[in-house]
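Look over what follows to help learners.
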Amino acid sequence: MQCGSGQLQRRFASGLAHNFQVAPAHSAPPPGAEGLHTRFFGGEAPSVSFEFVLKAFAVGNLLGSVEALQNGRAMPRERGFNAIDFRNVQTESDDQEHLRCASVRGARVGDYTYMTQAFTKTAKKPAATRTSPARTKAVREWKTGKAQGLQILEAPEVSRLKWLVHGFSTRSGGSSRLERTERGVKSSEEVLNLGFNEWDRPERVSANRQKFFSAVGAGKMRPVLLRQTHSDIVYLVGAANIPQGERAPQGDALITRERGVLLAVQTADCIPILLADTKNHAVAAIHSGWRGTARRIAEKTLGRMRMEFGTRPQDVIAAIGPGIGQCCYEVGHEVIKEFATIFPAAREWFDGPFDTLENGDADSNWLPWLTMRPPGHAPPAPTARLDLVAANRAILAGAGVPLKSIASSSLCTACRLDLFFSYRRERITGRMIAAIGIK
């Protein structure tokens, strides 16, 4: 039996009431590209909006997916798309709240160790950083001593060792003047800057350092600092190789068993770690940002101490000083990818879309028009928050240091600008020092 094309079209349309009818059933649409142009951009109003077509196409990957099978929306492969297949599909995107530091709103600030991020106001504090009774007790146990007008933070476990001196510097009490302009408002503050920065005078930094060393009881000791490069280089300080001034070598960890030597590392968000071998009377000072943490600099420092001094990890006391907390340290795909490759337990140290960032899905951004946003208004790339303190604690414990011998201050440098410097929050800021030495 033969029938005209018009009859066939009318019968087909009546049998598939939910099909995409972009033109009335009685009309004969032009073929090919001309027909496409006419139907979408011509004068005839479509019965299904173009926006709905885009939304429906956005969920086309339901074909063969596990989610579609579970929800009874699997699409037969022997036929094309049909509107009835999408009638119960929720095409709205999931708006995930990015929890970030609440103190700075809309400001572009630099990351001391990685990338530039924007801090936005948060509605609640991340669950991973909420203060527990145990963490509160740990913070209270850390001593904040005052000497020569300075506040010095001390770890209680290390303070019990009478054969050494140690201390973590804070912000106030120095002779440096930190000036900045924020939102048109100028401010000036006297701070204890212990790093040679462009905005500060060298003579003031030297005076601040001498004041700090004297406050921790190391006024007559010989300080040793490195040119830090976010590496895993461990430098042995002996009687014959005590660097001074411009002769300082590059590296991010110092070890010694020499008396009268004060090991020091500078930080402004990265994690300072002090180690003390209670049996062999050896000490170490470590600067650990995300790169140093990924390279296991704390574990390598322990290994070097074992090789040089016979140190056993079970005899070591570790103090993890103030650094940027998980509440404020947002990182992207590069950091997560590296941590996931190196550490089997890396997922435990991140809060956020770990799997998405690990697989690099956040960088693909294919077909951005599916977001239904105007050009130039694409959603920001997702980030996750890294807990550097937890990562270094796990690394030390994995190297054999008992958990009970690892103390951390649980103080975030980005949150506590009243006490510490934070490069990520301030950009133009000072440097703190964590120091340890044998009397």
In short: The radius of gyration is 30 Å. The CA atoms of residues 58 and 328 lie 34 Å apart. The chain has two domains: 5-86, 108-329+387-438.
